[in-house]
Amino acid sequence: MKDLYIEGDEIRDEKAPAGPVAERWDKRRFSAKLVNPANRRKLSVIIVGTGLAGASAAATLGEAGYNVKSFCYQDSPRRAHSIAAQGGINAAKNYRNDGDSIYRLFYDTVKGGDFRSRESNVYRLSQVSVEIIDQCVAQGVPFAREYGGLLDNRSFGGVQVSRTFYARGQTGQQLLIGAYQALERQVQAGTVEMNTRHEMLELIVVDGRARGIVARDMVTGEIETHFADAVVLSSGGYGNVFYLSTNAMGCNVTATWRAHRKGAHFANPCYTQIHPTCIPVSGDYQSKLTLMSESLRNDGRIWVPKEAGDKRDPREIPEGERDYYLERIYPAFGNLVPRDIASRAAKNVCDEGRGVGPGGLGVYLDFADAIKRMGRPAVEAKYGNLFDMYQRITGENPYEVPMRIYPAVHYTMGGLWVDYDLQSSIPGLFVTGEANFSDHGANRLGASALMQGLADGYFVLPNTINDYLAAGPFEKVDESSPEVEEAAAAVRARIDKLLSINGDRTVDSFHKELGHIMWDYCGMERSEEGLRKAVERIRELREEFWQNVRVLGTNEELNQSLEKAGRVADFFELAELMCIDAMHRRESCGGHFRAESQTEDGEALRHDDEFAYVAAWEFGGTGEPPVLHKEPLEYEYVEMKQRSYK
């Protein structure tokens, strides 16, 4: 296996303060250099992405007085994929008085991530979570409220308290509108320049520092260079490497992958999350999957028939012939076990032949008990828009017939490596939200993505980027700088190459085949043999892509075929690194389940003596093996032990 990568020097996070974990964030904020308000006007920051992390960061830095350039490939910042997050946002407010606290949120998140995240980062996230809710309420986010007017809470997987704030089934949408309002206020004030329909295609690095980006105007095809004193990537995750996922079809890895090729380490790429609550695949014609919010697991009960091959209408199967398998196997958490465990359990019952629906790839999510207990109006009030969405997609009424769900690719815990300040291994390049790796370890608990995105954008980055910018403004960079000319030339050459191949196969056909390889060999279960096969097939397919892809049109126009081709080319390289990372980690943890490493009853088996580290990969060069840098993970406040939700 060592033929696939080279082992390099150990890496450390030098920015995290020592001392009691509860005091580290205050300590770092005080020790970080400040930039006075007059000097902020002389400094510039580029932010790529306008989801929760990017929009909140741009709004906050603009409000602080920095000159911000914001970029997104959508026609409006409001179309960022954060808008699709439905279920809720975590915060340790303890409004329910049910035993929650900052420490418990910290503990649940470290445990939920299967002890593969940093204690310092997770504790900070838990602290900041409390401030996020106040911020969003002040912005007018319409969180659900109880009869007395207090904010309501519900539970999500992996916890035994109610700490998830929600706005019906459209929390991400409402939070994004709040961040968007704050962003547009700064656009109006002139501190933020908004660039829509622009895709970042290269990072500009001058004298070892990130100093700008090369972007393509997606309407005209013009290749533009933009410069700043620092660059922030808030460009989301890479779940679309699997082709079918719950991500919007435009979601891609290009921004972070281009930075990786310029020297930014990519951490834990094999940690991808399979979400248990998606509408099952209905045919080969599909280009994406639809997520049914995890919040449904609060009141819906998950079951399959006890007997394999039972094809009866679910309403005709009596209670005694149903297996509520999550409640049976994990009585302490029941239907609210973490996502990785719920997903594998669904796969197991379907592998036994007890799956339901076409192809036997589905399980029931049943609200009959909830409707009986609460009444249909109460269920409609909490979940109505989700039920409507399910009915529009499937043609089935979930108030009368149980929903069918099956696991699908959703979130990625891996991302660019960052230190405690959210700075990557390239000075001046900061990474926030799902684009970095820092907070979730090997598995993200539900309702923590919105929490991390807003924590990074509103509270963390604005208090750490100043430490770097205090040394600025840096020497002026312009189009004549050799590094800039080289970066722009590389982008043009890549576009010209894609347009000149003129082969026989569509971009989508390559993407779909790559997705099948990744799902089969680097999906819910991985093995040494399968991953080796995947690497071979990915390399063969990538070679064919560069010889036989057909990209229609020209660069000087709106060209979605060209956009997709560039993104899929990056997915090929990422997919290979994901498989190498999954192969080198010979343990099961969180979303990474190695068939060779499981307990007698089929649960994930970690090997803390060998793999208690972050795997930070350095780009080795085109055609060269990547270099592995290990960051040891040390736990002072949470005891590392095999997870149990029973």
Beta fraction: 5-15%
Mean pLDDT, all residues? 96
Q: What about the largest sheet? A: 5 strands, mixed
Would you tell me the structural class of the helices and strands?
Answer: alpha/beta
What is the topology, as strand order, of the major beta sheet? 1-20-19-11-17
- Total beta strands: 20
Number of helical segments? 17
Weakly predicted, low-confidence segments = none
Shape: globular
Q: What level of helicity do the residues show? A: 25-40%
Termini separation: 36 Å
**Gyration radius over CA:** 24 Å
Pfam family, one: FAD_binding_2
InterPro entries: FAD-dep_OxRdtase_2_FAD-bd, FAD/NAD-bd_sf, Fum_R/Succ_DH_flav-like_C_sf, Fum_Rdtase/Succ_DH_flav-like_C, SdhA/FrdA/AprA, Succ_DH/Fum_Rdt_flav_su, Succ_DH/fumarate_Rdtase_cat_sf
Keywords: Flavoprotein, Oxidoreductase
Domain Fumarate reductase/succinate dehydrogenase flavoprotein-like C-terminal: 511-645
